[in-house]
Amino acid sequence: MSDMPQTKAELIDRVEAGYAALEERLSHLSDAQLSARRTSTGWSAKDHVAHLAAYVYGMAALLRREPRWAAMRLDEKLVRDSQSDDEVNAVIYQQYKDRSTSEVRAAFRDAHQQMLNALNNLTDADLFKTYADYQPHDPDANNKAPVLGWIVGNTYEHYAEHRPWMEELLARQNR
Fold this sequence. Notes:
Elements: H1 8-26, H2 31-35, H3 45-63, H4 68-71, H5 76-81, H6 85-96, H7 101-120, H8 131-134, H9 147-154, H10 156-173
């Protein structure tokens, strides 16, 4: 996470740019393209978008000082007891896998809007408070890093992380 934004305005610009780039790419795809499962994981591009939406919902709730895991529709005990992110991600996958593409796209848009609303209520200084300042009872509350890193990691950096997997799925469909 080099080159971290230093102001709320800069952060919002990056979140917006990352979201817009992904939305622009998705807008050119049909429901069939978004729903096709062609990888060993069984995830479709739609499943990646659902995954991203869940994490953005969680971060928006965190910034509102609401339970992050509840916003992601996850049981806090599951999160505490899980041995890996893969276990948590599998639950998110199960929650969304049978939803339509339009429902998943709508959830992603809604999560993004919730994130923007939460960010707009912050100050520049709020970005440098710790995770525990926002979620003192959360399993990750021992993390003393600024919440800014969590926001970046669960928005535009997360989108960039998933985009190559989605592009690989789409490339396989065109073969």
